[in-house]
Amino acid sequence: MTAIFKFDGLLLILLLLICTCTYVRAQFPALLDRNKHGFLGAFWKMARVGERLSPYVALACLAMAIKILLHK
């Protein structure tokens, strides 16, 4: 099965997208700020979530990393 059909894989993809969008917006703000609506607006929203909830996103990434390391 692909990662999207497993809850853990879906959560990992979501966390990676949030972290990546936040990093891209920090480095190149104009790239995501001009696309606030439509399909590409989802990436802008993920960047905003990463900025505003960064402690919780960091804890979720840490918990996912520990889970992955201890799972195998």
Automatic annotation (TrEMBL):
<protein>
    <recommendedName>
        <fullName>Protein kish</fullName>
    </recommendedName>
</protein>
<comment type="function">
    <text>Involved in the early part of the secretory pathway.</text>
</comment>
<feature type="transmembrane region" description="Helical">
    <location>
        <begin position="53"/>
        <end position="70"/>
    </location>
</feature>
<keyword id="KW-0732">Signal</keyword>
<keyword id="KW-1133">Transmembrane helix</keyword>
<feature type="signal peptide">
    <location>
        <begin position="1"/>
        <end position="26"/>
    </location>
</feature>
<dbReference type="GO" id="GO:0000139">
    <property type="term" value="C:Golgi membrane"/>
</dbReference>
<dbReference type="InterPro" id="IPR051523">
    <property type="entry name" value="KISH_domain"/>
</dbReference>
<comment type="similarity">
    <text>Belongs to the KISH family.</text>
</comment>
<keyword id="KW-0333">Golgi apparatus</keyword>
<keyword id="KW-0812">Transmembrane</keyword>
<dbReference type="InterPro" id="IPR009653">
    <property type="entry name" value="Ksh1"/>
</dbReference>
<dbReference type="Pfam" id="PF06842">
    <property type="entry name" value="DUF1242"/>
</dbReference>
<keyword id="KW-0472">Membrane</keyword>
